[in-house]
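Figure 2 data, in text form.
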Amino acid sequence: MPTSLIRVGVVFGGASGEHDVSIRSASTVIKALADDSNRERFVVTPLYIDREGRWWSDTIARSVLESGAALTNEELPQPLPARGLRQLPVNPDCIDVWYPVLHGPNGEDGTVQGLFTLMQQPFVGSGVLGSAVGMDKLAMKAAFAVAGISQVPYLGINAADLNNPPQLEHVLVKVEDELGYPCFVKPANLGSSVGISKVRNRDELLAGLQLAAELDPRLVVEQGVNARELECAVLGREHLKASVVGEVRFDADWHDYETKYTEGRSQTLIPAPLPDAVSQRIQAMAVDACRAVHAYGQARVDVFYDEADGRIWLNEINTLPGFTSQSMYPTLWEASGMPLPQLVAELVATAQE
């Protein structure tokens, strides 16, 4: 093996509700790293984290990638070790750059980033702070508010309050008085629209809160707005650059998990049909959002745009965006003149800075 090859450890799967999306994203990333244009630059070692947090070697990882689906406990080598990370299945000295392709808790939230930081090894994406704040919607919104970035009205709720009838009634009344219907109920720490409900009355609000509370002890309720959904990708470390702006239109009441990951259910317009001045405002807001939470490397920033009065609200930042065939992050950069193999190479380069 030529010494010039950069050894990239791609970590995927994870103990999160977005395990399946991670497998699909990792497959895309690895194919791009192995593209003809990158073949003389990188050698990839895939590492799989199962649903209970155990780390597995490249042999198991490749079988998961080949099947495109998670392995059950019965399909993994026996006897199973204890849950969680007990030891790395690869010598860290054999990896030059770590590339986490993990979505949701236990991977996108600063935990794995903390591990790589303790190992004193470079990795793709944001550090512990940006990852943690970017994962938790309540912490994220607080950071955006301090930075003076416009957001839709929202409330933070503790799931424990749902078990106390007087407190629950207070929560329901507060949501109805301050936000009204329709509104969106979300777990604070999941992505890919997992556990999110659009609610139009008190019964749906109660059901949405209970669903989200099964997934997270911290909940967010956001006011529904009549707006276009736009997205912008950000890349870089010291100097952040924004992609063209894209728009998501979908054949559903809202952009839920099924719509997001089913072929033909959503349509992307890239670049979005917008006045140049609006696109530039969104690109500037995307960079400001990254700086507000100290995110770098890669991020996808989602905004709402009300054509009627020109208002733009920041929705959220995703510090470890999806890389599936339906994912906006690589598609936005493709439209900005950076094809996928070049994009993943740039991301590895940001980790080495």
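Caption note: The chain has a mean pLDDT of 92.
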